Amino acid sequence: MSIEILTDTRPQPLDKYPTADRPVRLTARNLQTEEVISMHRHVWGQFTYTPEGMMQIIANDSTWFVPPLRAIWIPSGVEHEVRIIEPSQLRVLYFHADHVPFKGSECLVLEVAPLLRELIVTMETITAGSEREAHLATVVIDEIQAAKHLPIHLPMPRDKRLKSLCEILLAEPSSGLTLEDYARQVGASSRTLSRLFESELNMSFSAWRQQMRLSKAFPLVTSGLPLSQVAEELGYASQSAFSAMFKKTFGESPSNFFRQK
Question: How far is 38 from 69, CA to CA, in rounded Å?
């Protein structure tokens, strides 16, 4: 199922635009599983967050999974798509071009600290255009600038055959099939696929699958799933094998990492 989204080429209600006088604007909507906000772009920067649920964001030839502990910063002009994996309370902050928390065209994965979560809740309830809204907007910008960046980046290919393979891997993260097995499914030789992984994504098939599994680990752990089940769902032989790979990437065990959150 998909829902329409207003883009820069179609009119929006004026009270939804961020302005120099009201540089931070909040939009809120509740979306159901499998709803899709198709590819679109804005002239403003966007902080995309859900206090409940799970989203997949696609932008800049990459994909991210967004649970309640994380958010995605999407700069102005960047095309992006939102796919709802679990019923989600989509909360989006729009930022006027003169008040964006980050410069550049790169999307960023950010940790959403407790204070920032409460600020977003408060933004939903305050009087529009009030002095308090202006004060909160300043604090929101400060908190987003101070938010910890998380090194989860999953590049997505443009080649149709490789893209088909990556979509299969995303849907079946626990699969232990080899590149040769997948080659028969997507209509390309394993040698061709291997070359495409290196040329388009700058990593090997095994490295991309490992990065994909780690990117999916965050939403699974934050949903409360025990680490042993997370390891099983992601195709690791054991919880210890999953923990070792997680620690190698993030510098600490998953139990310590998520306990701090």
Answer: 24
Cβ neighbourhood burial of 135 (10 Å; 0-12, 13-18, 19+): exposed
45/96 same-domain check: yes
Asked whether residue 209 falls in the same domain as residue 97, the answer is no
Structure token digits, residue 115: 């204070």
* Structural domain count of the chain: 2
CA angle 191, 196, 199 (to 5 degrees): 125
Hey, what are 146's tokens?
A: 């101070």
- Among 95, 71, 81, 98, residue whose Cα is nearest residue 41: 81
> Residues 140, 170: one domain?
no
Identify the DSSP state of 33.
T
Q: Residue 2 class from Cβ within 10 Å (0-12 exposed, 13-18 middle, 19+ buried)?
A: exposed
* pLDDT, tens digit, 9 for 90 and up, residues 180-239: 999 999 999 999 999 999 999 999 999 999 989 988 887 788 778 899 999 999 999 999
The CATH code of the domain that includes 47 is 2.60.120.280
0.90 cut: is pTM over it? Answer: no
